[in-house]
Write a structure and sequence with these properties.
Shape: globular
Number of helices: 7
Order of helices and strands: HHEEHEEEEEEEEEHEHEHEEH
Bound molecules: 2,5-anhydro-1,6-di-O-phosphono-D-glucitol, manganese (II) ion
Number of domains: 2
Structural class: alpha+beta
């Protein structure tokens, strides 16, 4: 079986990018170990701090963030990093060729109940004619410009799911040797599905288009969509996207009116974009409901975005409801 470093070496990507991905995995293996220690290491539960988005940080959010940040900032190919858990982007080497954004621990409400969580990352090229001198400005690129994206799902097995624009590979962490090994390649999401994932408790806050689509799903065989749907909600985007990658499905975290100043709950640069790249590379689709997520121009590192992604034909139906 091929190891991650062997696969990357044959992928035709620049050596600097290869090293960045390998470094992210050094941190992720450490995160995996820490998650496994959990209560034994006294690292479950919350800190007294909030991140810039007003969410209480879990101890493991902070630990995971520090592991990723420290190794990436020390990598000479990294011009800067942006993280869910950092208020502002952080400068690395000013001559670095790449920018990395990440969600160090996604689904962190699942930590204390011992369910699946993940790490999400997105890699962009750093503009070389950068005259703005503004560290954040250089990050504000559309998702289409990503050169690599991936996530690590910490579950019964720890998996790395990744793309460098040449399809999607899945690696399994062999904990006996501490290496990610290639276990599946050329992942294709089934085009049709009858399984949706959405937090139904927010229904009254959705836009009418989303309400209508879900109402029609619930009508089953007798409704306009003509099939009986099943529903799942793990509250961990990494776990939902992974389920969709393996057996199809549609995941939605739409705009809702709880806080009209926010365009949704999920963040464009380290949740929406990397997941969209993976899903599209696996033959699926991703949209805000009105446009492709990867065409949205970010205005800030923590911008939010409505997310609809998964099986291509089902995403097309949701988009049609928004026309
Ligand atoms: P994070 O833990 O990084 O803040 O992200 C959690 C996200 C996402 O993973 C999940 O789909 C969603 O929030 C769950 O939200 P609800 O608690 O509103 O269901
Ligand atoms: Mn998240
Ligand atoms: Mn997170």
């Amino acid at each position: 079986m091929k190891r991650l470093d062997q696969v990357l070496a044959n992928d035709g990507i620049p050596a600097e990018l290869e090293l960045i991905i390998n470094h992210i995995m050094v941190a992720c293996k450490d995160i995996s170990y820490k998650l496994g220690q959990g209560e034994l290491a006294g690292i479950l539960g919350a800190t007294e701090d909030e991140n810039i988005q007003g969410e209480t940080q879990k101890m493991l959010d902070v630990i995971s963030n520090d592991l990723l940040k420290d190794i990436l900032i020390a990598n000479p190919a990294v011009k800067g990093v942006g993280s869910e858990e950092e208020d502002y982007t952080i400068a690395g080497n000013k001559d670095g060729k790449y920018l990395v954004t990440f969600d160090p621990l996604d689904g962190s409400s699942n930590i204390d109940v011992n369910l699946s969580v993940g790490t999400i990352f997105s890699i962009l090229e750093a503009p070389q004619d950068d005259r703005t001198g503004d560290q954040q400005e250089v990050f504000l690129q559309e998702g289409r410009k990503q050169v690599a994206a991936g996530y690590v799902l910490y579950g019964p097995s720890d998996l790395l799911v990744m793309t460098t624009g040449n399809g999607v590979n899945i690696f399994t962490l062999d904990k006996n040797v501490g290496e990610f090994v290639l276990t599946k390649s050329g992942i294709q999401i089934p085009e049709d599905t009858a399984e949706f994932a959405i937090n139904m408790s927010n229904q009254r806050f959705w836009e009418p288009e989303m309400k209508q689509y879900i109402d029609d799903c619930l009508k089953g065989e007798e409704g306009p969509l003509g099939k009986r749907y099943n529903m799942r909600w793990v509250a961990s985007m990494v776990a939902e996207v992974h389920r969709i990658l393996i057996r199809g499905g549609i995941f939605m975290y739409p705009y809702d009116s709880r806080d009209p100043s926010k365009a949704g709950k999920l963040r464009l640069m380290y949740e929406g974009n990397p997941m969209s790249m993976i899903v599209e590379q696996a033959g699926g689709a991703s949209s805000t409901g009105r446009m492709d997520i990867m065409d949205v121009k970010p205005e800030g590192i923590h911008d939010r975005v409505p997310v609809v992604l998964g099986s291509k034909n089902e995403v097309a139906k949701v988009v049609a409801y928004h026309k």
